[in-house]
């Protein structure tokens, strides 16, 4: 338990945060990398909004979904082209959502430990956290290839809890998608959802979560009240 400003005790000690679609609008960079890959393979560009519905289960699934019109295409070659382009544009246009930086600051002021838990490959996570100014706020990050399984498996969330010295009951996941919600549930942890991210094209209200919050700042207020 930690003491918060109004002298109440709070049962949470750690917050796990999804990255793409929760802290950062990274779709412009991801779309540029997908369409750079498609151009290299002689394929026409896809609409950015459509690419947004392919985000959530990591880079390999994003690439596979982005090539549904090219079934004979080598996945390995496509991944190499995607990585090449994303390395170049990762963090160029990605921006924190309104309330994200203020929310991170508030969560830290409340004495909570913070970790990013993303399905993004690790080679892209740290550079992105640094370029967008998020790195100084977080104590740890777990990427899609850090553990044997990625979200919606609970393993990355449980690993993040261990890194932060918290039990799942002391932790809350904040995310935008079914992958975060299913992982949190399987890990035995509370889950708050933001409505503005990439939920594979589905309404966030379809998720089984403890609350839908308008921003990370609102999530901090929810935590302070619970
Ligand atoms: O890389 C993805 O597909 C999604 O990444 P996220 O887990 O940070 O939303």
Supply the key terms:
226 residues, alpha/beta, Rossmann fold, DNA polymerase, domain 1, 6-stranded parallel β-sheet, 10 strands, 40% helix, binds 2-phosphoglycolic acid
Low-confidence stretches: none
The CATH architecture of the largest domain can be given as: 3-Layer(aba) Sandwich
Name the average pLDDT: 95
Taking the sheet with the most strands, its summary is: 6 strands, parallel
Total strand segments: 10
Outline: elongated
Helix percentage range: 40-55%
- By secondary-structure content and strand pairing, the structural class works out as alpha/beta
**Number of distinct helices:** 9
Could you name the CATH class of the largest domain?
Alpha Beta
Task: Give the end-to-end Cα distance, rounded to a whole number of Å.
Answer: 12 Å
Cα gyration radius (Å): 17 Å
* Bound small-molecule species: 2-phosphoglycolic acid
Order of strands, widest sheet: 7-6-3-8-9-10
Look at the structure and name the CATH superfamily of the largest domain: HAD superfamily/HAD-like
**Order of helix and strand elements from N to C terminus:** EEEEHHHHEHEHEHEHEEH
Portion of residues in beta strands equals 5-15%
Q: How is the CATH topology of the largest domain named?
A: Rossmann fold
Number of domains: 2
């Amino acid at each position: 338990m930690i003491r918060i400003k109004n002298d109440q005790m709070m049962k949470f000690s750690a917050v796990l945060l999804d990255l793409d679609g929760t802290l950062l609008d990274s779709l412009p960079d991801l779309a540029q990398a997908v369409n750079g890959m498609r151009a290299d393979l002689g394929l026409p560009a896809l609409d950015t909004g459509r690419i947004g519905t392919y985000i959530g289960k990591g880079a390999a699934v994003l690439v596979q979904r982005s090539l549904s019109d090219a079934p004979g295409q080598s996945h390995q070659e496509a991944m190499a082209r995607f990585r090449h382009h994303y390395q170049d544009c990762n963090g160029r246009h990605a921006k924190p959502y309104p309330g994200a930086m203020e929310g991170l600051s508030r969560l830290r002021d409340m004495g909570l430990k913070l970790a990013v838990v993303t399905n993004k490959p690790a080679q892209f996570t740290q550079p992105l956290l640094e370029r967008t100014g998020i790195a100084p706020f977080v104590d740890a990050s777990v990427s899609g290839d850090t553990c044997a399984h990625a979200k919606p498996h609970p393993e990355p969330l449980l690993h993040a809890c261990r890194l932060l010295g918290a039990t799942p009951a002391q932790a809350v996941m904040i995310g935008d998608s079914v992958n975060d919600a299913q992982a949190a549930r399987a890990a035995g942890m509370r889950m708050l959802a933001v409505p503005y991210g990439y939920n594979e094209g589905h309404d966030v209200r379809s998720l089984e979560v403890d609350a839908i919050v308008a921003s990370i700042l609102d999530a901090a207020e929810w935590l302070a009240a619970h």
